[in-house]
Specification:
Largest sheet: 5 strands, antiparallel
Helix content: 25-40%
Mean pLDDT: 85
Strand content: 25-35%
Shape: globular
CATH class: Alpha Beta
Radius of gyration: 19 Å
Number of domains: 1
Number of strands: 8
CATH superfamily: Gamma-glutamyl cyclotransferase-like
Low-confidence stretches: 183-191
Length: 198
Amino acid sequence: MAVCYFSYGANMSRYVLEKRKVRTSKPGVPGIAKDYVLTFSHRGGYATLIPLTKLLHSEEARWAPFKISPHGVLYHISQEEFAFLQEKEVGYQVTDILVQCYGSEEEEGKLIPAKAFVSSPLLLLFAAVAPPARYMAKIKQGADENGLCGLYRDWLANVRVATLHEVTHSDYNSTYADLGARCFGFALLAGITWALIN
């Protein structure tokens, strides 16, 4: 049985999918993730989806730049291919979403249940950042290949990208997982020091 997979990041590009050993059985269908926001707040500056309700109940500045009702591509892939993608999408969780399709008379307006990769809460940055330039180029390539809405592609074109120097900044790794690891390290060091003294 095929899996309806909604891609909104680099995996929109067929070239990227093929490198990940995923061969789509038919062309992707452009669509919009209902009730979600796209933001670059996964560790490393990568994209993720945030529920719209979460945006409305927190400071918008945390998620900027963001895009309400993010566009992407709906692919039908095998369960084996999806499982392989899941192994590659480190730090992401599989989430069930609803996608509104567009792009052809046959698909226009259809609401399709799909699966998407969304950041684990532990690997969300404390604030969104500018995405890495190479990563953003793959997103734009996938958007062009699949004929996503022109206004959405214009928005992608105007998102500021990060330089290699910026990506090394601590802002790109400031997550609860990293904070927890540092706290554990400090606690372990304190414990060892106390043991040596006593």
